[in-house]
């Protein structure tokens, strides 16, 4: 089977970080590669196309504060560029539209809605209405572990993480009082949606929206669906490690790709915690090992438990397999926060598979994970 070495980018799915261009030195930290096969004969078992196919790949750095890789099997470069251009256009659009913190000319986004909290309704794109509805749904499904109205607390940790990048020697944790005060303002019902007039409004000036727990996966799912509607039969879209697989692997009779999930220990001797063989699905991992800062040798990562207002400490990594990458994104975040038994109930409800690594390195998985896992790595 062709091995898609995506473990190095399957790190985080729920990013509450300010959206900005990826720094050049970060580009070498993420790799995505397919088989060395340059041409695929039309005689392969999947019969993806009557003509010979070639593998094409593009890397995009500008959007969602992450690295996107897009790989597709196409007849020629012209066909590939049609799909690549679509990915770039939509990434640029959703980067602006789903932005929590930055403003853009002639774009009303979540920054605009937050700025007008307690003031006035904001006319927004229908996609914002849709993702707000999605956020309210996940609040109910996860008993509040995913809360798009939790932005005030998330912003405290975001600011601290960004400060640590500039001045790591002079950062200190927020006080419990500061976090508790910010945590008072998380009422999901303060977010009002008017579908008829296509407006969004926060009726409490202290509540702020942050869609980091669901935004990237939601945008990736929209792009994946549009690529399929435009005719793409085989491709892989990896947005900062949120991996959506379109179709089957045309180079192998099984039609499967291998996805390698990084071991949170970051050991060179044991780089992958699990390798799964999949197609026509999505694989997303939430972990504690990339977006974090340290104080006195202790890590503080970006996935915040709303029960404590501090980074969740139950797990080091949670991976999810399910067809809808927006669901995989949200589930991986929620499972990272919930205890194991609660998480198993949630993942079963959504007919997904999950793989947990706890703080002591112990692993747990849903019943059917073994159907996907490759034993010989």
TrEMBL record:
One GO molecular-function entry = metal ion binding
UniProt entry keywords in alphabetical sequence: FAD, Flavoprotein, Magnesium, Metal-binding, Transferase
InterPro entries under this entry?
Answer: ApbE (IPR024932), ApbE-like_sf (IPR003374)
- The entry marks the following residues as binding Mg(2+), namely 213, 329, 333
First-tier enzyme category under EC: transferase
What chemistry does it catalyse, as a reaction equation?
Answer: L-threonyl-[protein] + FAD = FMN-L-threonyl-[protein] + AMP + H(+)
Answer whether the UniProt record assigns the keyword Flavoprotein to this protein.
Answer: yes
- Cite the cofactor comment: Magnesium. Can also use manganese.
- Please indicate if the UniProt record lists Metal-binding as a keyword: yes
Question: So which cofactors does this thing need?
Answer: Mg(2+); Mn(2+)
Assigned EC number = 2.7.1.180
Gene3D superfamilies (UniProt xref): ApbE-like domains
Q: Which domain of life is it from?
A: Bacteria
Q: State the similarity comment.
A: Belongs to the ApbE family.
**Sorted alphabetically, which PANTHER family does this protein's record hold?**
FAD:PROTEIN FMN TRANSFERASE, THIAMINE BIOSYNTHESIS LIPOPROTEIN APBE
Q: What is this protein called?
A: FAD:protein FMN transferase
Q: What is the lineage of its organism?
A: Bacteria, Bacillati, Bacillota, Tissierellia, Tissierellales
